[in-house]
Amino acid sequence: MAAATTRTRLRQDAERRQDAERRQDAERRQDAELRQDAELRQDAERRQDAELRQDAELRQDAERRRAAIRAARNRPKPRPWVLPVQKYHLTGRFGQQGNNWSSSHHGLDFAAPAGTPIRAVGAGTIIEAGWNGSAYGNRIKVRHRDGTVTLYAHLSGFERKAGKVATGTVIGYVGTTGNVTGPHLHLEVRPHGGKLDSAIDPSRWLATKGLRP
């Protein structure tokens, strides 16, 4: 009787240990599954975050490109031609005659304070610069792409004396050198690089460039 009771208790103990081990195994499996689920969720969240960041970066890049395009469209285009001085009043005009000239006036005079910057009216190449006798004094010639030569006379000094110039490049300064009665820029326009007798009215020529002196 005692032996049977002992065997019964041993079986019961063994069953309890097996039950306990099964529960532990089940808990371990459950914990493992929970950890795996958590890792899968974290991986999914990381992928989602990465995709969201990538989408945001793509949108930002696209917006930057659109902004650059808008800025380029709205940016004022460089003017191909400009007036030679910015603040002035006109005195001698083309074709005038009088004691100030040996013949009719071949240019347009922009009166301005001595030292006022003089700008190339258009892109071109300086072909002459220096002293040119008692009539012009210090003068610069610029040949433009179509062959037209513009002449700037009575300069007090030079900023550029050779090389290529862009529209609006400062090439010298208003002065009183040569035959003058006061500080001014004498501008001549000679189509196709012609001589003095081929000079045309600078006012009309500038008007064809959209400028009204």
Using only CA atoms, what is the Rg? 45 Å
State the separation between the terminal residues, measured CA to CA.
134 Å
* Computed structural class: alpha+beta
The name of the CATH topology of the largest domain is Glucose Permease (Domain IIA)
Taken in chain order, the helices and strands follow as HEEEEHEEEEEH
- Share in helix: 25-40%
Strand content: 15-25%
Number of domains: 2
Q: How many alpha or pi helices? A: 3
Q: Count the beta strands.
A: 9
Largest sheet: 9 strands, antiparallel
- Unreliable runs, pLDDT <50, ≥5 residues? none
Secondary-structure topology with pairs:
Blueprint: H1 2-74, E1 89-90, E2 108-111, E3 117-119, E4 124-131, H2 133-136, E5 138-144, E6 149-158, E7 163-165, E8 170-174, E9 184-190, H3 202-208
Antiparallel strand pairs: 1-2, 2-9, 3-8, 4-5, 4-7, 5-6, 6-8, 6-9
Describe the structure.
The protein has 213 residues and is an alpha+beta fold. The chain has helices at 2-74, 133-136, 202-208; strands at residues 89-90, 108-111, 117-119, 124-131, 138-144, 149-158, 163-165, 170-174, 184-190. Strands 1, 2, 3, 4, 5, 6, 7, 8 and 9 form a nine-stranded antiparallel sheet that branches. A hairpin with a 4-residue loop joins β5 (138-144) and β6 (149-158). The radius of gyration is 45 Å and the shape is rod-shaped. The mean pLDDT is 89.
